[in-house]
Write a structure and sequence with these properties.
The structure is a single chain. This protein is an all-alpha fold. Helix content is 76%, strand content 0%. Helix 1 packs antiparallel against helix 2 and helix 2 packs antiparallel against helix 3.
């Protein structure tokens, strides 16, 4: 087995997702924060890139779902922030 650049990208994605999960479990990262969604989405995207070179349908489907959920959460956060503004007042 050779270790290619896409393997490194996929492993980086795994580490990002695991780090987010660990930080959430030890109360160092809020799962409702945009950083959590962005990092999880980036991790899923990195894994998807690696799967494009060494395809596995089950892994691909779960990473697509992980990416979609992360994007949904990020859009939800941004919409809520736009409604309330930076000062917290509802507009």
């Amino acid at each position: 087995m050779t270790y290619e650049w896409h393997d490194l990208v996929g492993n980086a994605g795994v580490l990002i997702i695991l780090a987010c999960y660990l930080l959430a479990q030890i109360d160092r990262m809020d799962i409702k924060s945009p950083a959590y969604s962005v990092l999880n989405g980036a991790g899923a995207l990195f894994i998807i890139v690696s799967l494009l070179y060494d395809f596995n349908l089950s892994s691909f489907v779960i990473e697509l779902a992980w990416l979609a959920i992360s994007l949904f959460a990020l859009v939800r956060y941004l919409r809520a922030r736009a409604r309330t503004g930076n000062d917290g007042a509802v507009r």
